[in-house]
Amino acid sequence: IDDEGYPLQPYGVKNNAYSILDVADIVYVNPVNTGYSRVLKNEEGELPSKDAQKDMFFGVNADVKYLAEWLNTFVTRNNRWRSPKYLIGESYGTTRVSGLALALQNSQWMYLNGVILVSPTDLGIKRDGPVDVANRLPYFAATAWHHKLLAPEYQNMALEEFLPQVEAFALNKLLPAVARGGFISETEKQAVVAQVAAYSGLSEKAVEQNNLDVSPWYYWKELLREEGKTVGRLDSRYLGIDGKDSGSRPDYNAELTSWLHSFTPALNYYLREVLNYKTDVKYNMFGPVHPWDRSNDKTGENLRLAMAANPYLHVMIQSGYYDGATNYFDAKYTLWQLDASGKMKDRLSFKGYRSGHMMYLRHEDLESANNDIRDFIKASLPGKNEAAKYPR
Fold it and tell me: What's the CATH architecture for 20-124+284-380?
């Protein structure tokens, strides 16, 4: 890939000069039906039924349960019980590692030093209605800033200087306006419409026609409609082209097709030709894991409980400003809701990057994201004779 993360041919791999191997060993795990991981047949040579597989593997809590057992086995076989331990997950993996933080404590008696959430999901923390609407606007603004669609007063600001004012408007003006629905005064509504349009790069007409509730799908389609382009879902720097410029959502995810363009051949080359792992089994970039049982998702609350019970446990969130699937302001909201009491906020941190869902694809953010992980690990290791306790 090039320095911005776009595919280059011939495909291949190269060393990561910013790897955190100087501070930690890295263990990658492919859950069942991803990568080369598969369900094994029983002694009779039969696979478990689909219902049995779902109960064992394919759901929020089933996933956490079997992976906690796997981690115990791995740590035991490799004699790493005394080592400080960190979990890092990306996208749905953040749901997984948040649940594992408590499951490892409660069922395996294994206590972590840190959890790193890369482009986190909602972790079961609800944000429907006006909160959901308001939380999208800073992402819209970042996207419009990247594509240079803003008025000079905003466009000439550094992104990190611009976004805090959008965040403040989203919380203090947009959220209450949406909450009041059709009972807001026309004067106030038009003022909010105008500011949403100014921040998002959309027309006032588009914002008003959606009653201030602009969906991400509509935004990806509408922002560059007049140019005949769509913007990517997971990274809005990427552009796509649709069969028709009309419609309310793009035909495809422009960024995902670009990434699979690079990753699939590179991974297969590395595993088969460099590591010399030979198999006819397909390496699943996306695996058959549906239907996924999303019921009883309390992973955010479980992470809070794990932190409360373990004073050594720190959490860092890493988010790309151009990620529209798990947008960065939703991630901040998650951080705030993880500890509504504020008693653990010194162990919670957030890092943002000028890229999308996979921020490390952009060379500059590969360096900064790895350095942030390195610094997080160093800072969260307890000092000599530093006991795990809460002082009075």
Answer: 3-Layer(aba) Sandwich (3.40)
Phi, psi (deg, nearest 5) at residue 47: -80, 150
Q: Are 11 and 265 in contact (CB under 8 A)?
A: yes
pLDDT of residue 142: 99
CA angle 360, 366, 368 (to 5 degrees): 125
The pLDDT assigned to 258 comes to 85
- Report the distance separating Cα 165 and Cα 329, nearest Å: 13
**Which residues in 355-377 are b (16+ Cβ under 10 Å) and which e?**
bbbbbbbbbebbebbbebbbebb
Predicted pLDDT at 10? 86
Which of 4-34 are b and which e, b meaning 16 or more Cβ less than 10 Å from the residue's Cβ?
Answer: ebbbeeebeeeeeebebeeebeeeeeebbbb
Specify whether the CB–CB gap between 148 and 176 falls below 8 A: no
Question: pTM, whole model, 2 decimals?
Answer: 0.96
Domain boundaries, the chain: 20-124+284-380, 130-255
Burial label for 249, CB within 10 Å (0-12, 13-18, 19+), is middle
Bridge partners, 117 (sequence order): 89, 317
Residues of the chain with pLDDT under 50: none
Residue with tokens 């949403």: 196
Q: What is the per-residue DSSP string for 206-236?
A: HHHHTTT---HHHHHHHTTGGGT-EE-SS-T
Q: Which helix (H) or strand (E) holds 90?
A: strand 86-90
| Per-residue pLDDT at 392 | 86
Give CA–CA dist 60/297, Å, rounded. Answer: 6
The whole-angstrom separation of Cα 98 and Cα 61 is 11
What does the pLDDT read at residue 327? 98
d(CA 368, CA 156): 24
CB atoms within 10 A of CB 210: 18
Tell me what pLDDT residue 280 has.
95
Q: How far apart are CA 276 and CA 279, in angstroms?
A: 10
Dist CA 332 CA 351 (whole Å): 10
**CB neighbourhood size of 297 (10 A):** 20
Cα pseudo-dihedral 380, 384, 385, 388, rounded to 10: 10
pLDDT of 5 reads: 87
